[in-house]
Amino acid sequence: MAKTGSILLVLLLLLVAAAGCGSQSGQPTYQENKKMVLDMLKTNEGKRTVKELLQDKEMRNTIVLDEPAVKKTIIETLTTEQGKKIWNEIIADPEFSGRLAKSMQQENEKLLKKMMKDPDYQGMMMDVLKAPKLQEQYLDLMKTKPFREQMKMGVQDTLASPLFKKQLMDAITEALKKQSKKGS
């Protein structure tokens, strides 16, 4: 902070000194002051000073950004061709896109759950699932060897399940009881 304070002090001293040398009437006009400050900022020393101020963590924390201005700037930047190119490069970075996806995951899940309850969305999903080309792809998928092997393993797992065996035995016993009552 001492460094930032000294930089600000130097800037103020330069401004006061420049203001004293301004006009013949003794008091510089607004335009003269503005020109002097802008000229000082355009120098290498002025640019370096501003850069140092912006790199100072404490100074960055004290700068208050106007939300509508930030929003407008982001929209204008991202909608340009250069902005789109930069955005595509950023999204291509796996680390960035992973962090972005993780930060948005909960909101996406909430949105999806809300949409699944929406009758219009449900109707659209049903239309998609009923599409002839999609149904054809499902049927083609079911004909593949990996799908059949997966189905076989699923059936074998089900048949080996103690719960399924009990339910099957109960169903057979019930059917035999009904059959014997009809026969009697």
From TrEMBL:
Transmembrane segments: none annotated. The keyword Signal applies. Residues 63-175 form the Spore germination GerD central core domain. Residues 1-19 form the signal peptide. This is Spore germination protein GerD. NCBIfam families: spore_GerD. It comes from the Bacteria. The gene is gerD. It holds the Pfam family GerD. Keywords: Signal. The keyword Signal applies.
